[in-house]
Amino acid sequence: MGIKDGVRNKIFDPFFTTKPVGKGTGIGLAISYQIIVDKHGGRIFCNSQEGKGTEFIIEIPIQENTLKIKTL
User: Fold this and answer.
1) How far are the Cα atoms of 22, 37, 60 from residue 25, in angstroms, in the given order?
2) What is the CATH number of the domain that holds 41?
3) Residues spanned by the domain of 36
4) Overall number of domains in the chain
């Protein structure tokens, strides 16, 4: 439970994993980061306490409808 302090700053790196070889690809959080931050202009935060648990907070901005209607 929880993520160690020395590991937390690497969790969004592509192919980073703490699992044994063959048990994980290490791309899940990297892909999540890319979608949330790069594609949607959002933010993702990780709050973790070793031995207690981890919480991820995702913020995605709301965009106003920018459709313009042309009248004839």
Assistant:
1) 8, 21, 26
2) 3.30.565.10
3) 5-59
4) 1
Q: What are the tens digits of pLDDT across the range 38-71? A: 999 999 999 999 999 999 999 999 876 666 677 7
Residues 6+ apart with CB under 8 A from 51: 1, 2
CA distances from 65 to 3, 11, 55, 60, 69 (A): 39, 34, 31, 15, 11
Distance CA 71, CA 37 (A): 36
Domain assignment present for 30: yes
pTM value is: 0.75
What DSSP line would sit under 40-51, residue for residue?
T--EEEEEEETT
